[in-house]
Specification:
Blueprint lengths: L4 E5 L5 H13 L4 E5 L6 H14 L3 E7 L4 H7 L5 E6 L6 H8 L8 E2 L5 H13 L3 H24 L37 E5 L5 H13 L4 E5 L6 H9 L6 E7 L3 H9 L4 E6 L7 H7 L8 E2 L5 H12 L4 H11 L6
Parallel strand pairs: 1-2, 1-3, 3-4, 4-5, 6-7, 6-8, 8-9, 9-10
Helix pairs in contact: 1-5, 5-6, 7-11
Length: 338
């Protein structure tokens, strides 16, 4: 059997994080391969694993590493398949690994998840594969429901200890709330649209335009909408729901990146995040975008790196489109400039 996912650990000491990933892949019934290879100490081994794995039919690579975590980037340099990076906590609380993984040059994107968030890497891999596999998509939806039910059940299981005299326990019980009652509108999005780009505010539009330009040159259809889920929550929900044919979303946002967080809560499709710098160049957008809770992954690329987001989207959609694969190969070999 050819595994759909290859997981490479920079060190066997990272196996606890890898177990979070494999637990998810087991639930989703996705075949995977698990290897240990260091980007620095066994570079040739990493190279051979990635090249031969790609040739054999591996569709998604996951690199798990700490410290100066160059492993996911090295993986990306040898394949045109999507690569997910999991930074592992180390001496600098994992920030050294996070920066090493997320700040990749174009065209070698890595979809970074949060520090030690191996489970989110597994879910993101499943979401990518679910674009072309309805059975995996159904299992993804079941898994997301499990995460939701865990939070909902906490109202009864974990809050019983609060017995203050002024605590109104019987106010708005779960059975009184219709959690699935949403009224959406059809915004008449084109049926052949592949990527939906959502921008949090006008100041980030220039980065979103870079995403759109690269997607167009990579022969992918997309559109841009400026829409803030905090200012216009209902309109945001309506817009996401009106795009059933879209394969994945790219959220572009600065400051507290509510755009990507809102997207993950409203769709089970892959979400790519582009954090944008602010006037003070603060990393608030990066940290709030990448550090998502279990079950809600955002494949985050580097700050202001809209081009890598577009290339990552192309790698994902090329899994079912040989024409796109040829374009990606030419871009990575610098035979064409995009």
């Amino acid at each position: 059997m050819i595994p759909k996912v290859m997981i490479i650990l920079g060190s066997a000491s990272d196996k606890a994080v890898a177990e979070k990933t494999t637990d998810i892949l087991e639930k989703l019934e996705i075949p995977y391969s698990l290897k240990v290879a260091s980007a620095h100490r066994t570079h040739e081994l990493v190279k051979q694993l990635v090249i031969k794995g790609t040739e054999a039919g591996v569709e998604v690579f996951i690199g798990i590493a700490g410290l100066s975590a160059h492993l996911p980037g090295v993986i990306s340099s040898y394949t045109f398949r999507p690569v997910i990076g999991v930074p592992v906590e180390g001496k600098l609380d994992g920030l050294d690994a996070l920066y090493s993984i997320v700040q990749m040059p174009y065209p070698t994107p890595v979809a970074s998840v949060g520090i030690d968030r191996g489970e989110n890497a597994g879910i993101l891999a499943g979401q990518i594969l679910s674009i072309n596999d309805s059975e995996i998509k159904e299992r993804i939806n079941i898994l997301r429901k499990e995460y939701s039910n865990k939070v909902i059940s906490s109202n009864e299981k974990d809050l019983d200890e609060f017995n203050g005299e002024n605590h109104v326990k019987d106010f708005l019980q779960m059975e009184e709330l219709d959690l699935d009652d949403s009224e959406y509108i059809d915004d008449s999005i084109e049926e052949d649209l592949e990527v939906g780009i959502i921008v949090g505010n006008h100041q980030d539009l220039a980065i979103a335009k870079k995403v759109e330009i690269v997607l167009e040159r990579l022969k992918m259809t997309s559109n841009i909408r400026i829409l803030c889920p905090i200012r216009f929550p209902k309109a945001f929900e309506q817009y996401v729901d009106s795009m059933p044919e879209v394969k994945l979303f790219i959220g572009v946002s600065s400051q507290s990146t509510q755009v990507t967080g809102a997207l993950t809560s409203l769709t089970s499709k892959p979400v790519i995040g582009v954090p944008c710098s602010t006037a003070l160049n603060i990393n608030d957008s990066l940290f709030s975008m990448v550090s998502m809770p279990p079950g809600m992954p955002v494949g985050t690329v580097g700050i202001d790196n809209g081009k890598n987001a577009a290339f990552l989207a192309a790698e994902i959609l090329a899994l079912s489109n040989p024409e796109k694969i040829n374009i990606l190969k030419k871009v990575k070999s610098k035979k064409i400039n995009v």
